[in-house]
Each structure stands twice: as structure tokens, then as C-alpha cells.
Design a protein that fits this description.
The chain contains 5 helices and 6 strands. It is α+β, with helices and mostly antiparallel strands. It has one domain: q2cbj1_9rhob like domain (Jelly Rolls, Sandwich).
């Protein structure tokens, strides 16, 4: 399964700062993600703790889409979060301003379970949560997002995945609900992230 971004898709992303793609993961990969997150009560840094999640979200296919959209390389793993009705964090307004990692280049919100039939038009920013399983919405970290959009997606589960540039740095940002997460991996504020914990996922432009 490969994704080649068309000129129209790239133009749409550059103009609107978001775009959705259907079926970016297979049925098997989707089930693998759902089973993995249900076994562990984790809502952040899943790739660092659950191999099955890492295997799917680190697929070259997804990073290829990301690098084609933002047209920047290399891109490394930034961070990930789980969003659902039970998650502590229910949303954000601007990702780049509310997370403790600098250098974010592009983000993806992937629906791994549940479909939304309700019609909802946000007036406070982008609704970054896709309507259907296996659908992903890519967006720029500086996009204004609707922080309350998740309440309109009852019964759905999402994984947020981000890509950062080579110089990404761990920052002290109290707006981040997981501001101290990287301390568990030996980081202190001001450190640049390392290849061991935040590997390069795409090294060149497509």
C-alpha cells in the first residue's frame, strides 16, 4: 500500500493546512493498533512503550505522506498521544504552542476505532478528528484547532502522531499535559532529542 500525493492534494494542504486520506492503514494494521492500546492503559508515548503501535505508526508509508505534504526532510518521530472519551487530554488549540517538543513539522490524527455519523461544523478551528476508521487527517502544528471537537466523536478512538525536524528539542511547557514524559527517558529540559528515542523516519524529499 503506497500513497503518492497529487499536485491538487499538495495545493489543498498548503492552502488549508490540513487534509484527510482514507485507508492509510490496512484492516490488519488497524486491528493491531486497537488490540495494543486496549491492553495498556497509556495515553502518551505509546510508540516508546508498545511495540505493536510503534510497528504501525513507524511505517514508511505514513512518513512518506508527511514529507510530501510538508516538503521538509529529514523528519523524525516527535511524540504520540491517544484520544478517546476516557483520555485525560481531550484536545488542544494549537499543537506547536501546547507541547514540550520544539521543531514540530507536521501531525497526523488517525482514527483506529469507531465511525461518526453526526454532522458537526466547527466554528472554533479545525475538527482534527476523522469521521471513519483507518482515515487520517494530516495538519500543520500551527493550525488553530477546535479544542472541544472530540465531544462530537463519541465512541471513537484516535492516535495522534507527530513528525519533527532534526533539531527538535525538549522544552519546559506547562501547557503540555505530558510535560515531564521525556524525563523518564533520561532527558532534561533543553536537550535535543536523540536518534535512539526519536529516530529519523524519512531522510529525503520525495
Amino acid at each position: 500500500m503506497k500513497y503518492q500525493i497529487s499536485a491538487n492534494q499538495h495545493h489543498f494542504f498548503q492552502k488549508h493546512h490540513w487534509i484527510t486520506f482514507e485507508e492509510v492503514v490496512s484492516d490488519v494494521e488497524q486491528k493491531k493498533l486497537v488490540d495494543a492500546v486496549k491492553k495498556r492503559a497509556l495515553y502518551a508515548d505509546l510508540c516508546s512503550n508498545i511495540q505493536e503501535v510503534r510497528d504501525v505508526l513507524f511505517l514508511p508509508r505514513l512518513s512518506t505522506i508527511a514529507v510530501q505534504l510538508c516538503h521538509k526532510a529529514p523528519l523524525r518521530y516527535g511524540f504520540d498521544e491517544l484520544f478517546c472519551e476516557k483520555s485525560v487530554n481531550q484536545g488542544f488549540t494549537m499543537l506547536s504552542d501546547e507541547r514540550a517538543l520544539s521543531g514540530l513539522e507536521i501531525a497526523m490524527m488517525l482514527c483506529i476505532e469507531g465511525n461518526c455519523t453526526a454532522e458537526f461544523v466547527s466554528k472554533k478551528g479545525i475538527d482534527i478528528f476523522p469521521k471513519n476508521e483507518r482515515e487520517a487527517l494530516f495538519f500543520t502544528p500551527s493550525s488553530i484547532c477546535d479544542p472541544l471537537a472530540l465531544m462530537h466523536h463519541r465512541g471513537q478512538t484516535f492516535l495522534l502522531f507527530t513528525w519533527a525536524n532534526r533539531g527538535a528539542m525538549y522544552l519546559y511547557n506547562l501547557k503540555d499535559p505530558n510535560v515531564h514524559a521525556l524525563k523518564k527517558q533520561g532527558y532534561v529540559f533543553g536537550d535535543k532529542v536523540k536518534e535512539k528515542t526519536h529516530p529519523i523516519l524519512c531522510r529525503k524529499l520525495m
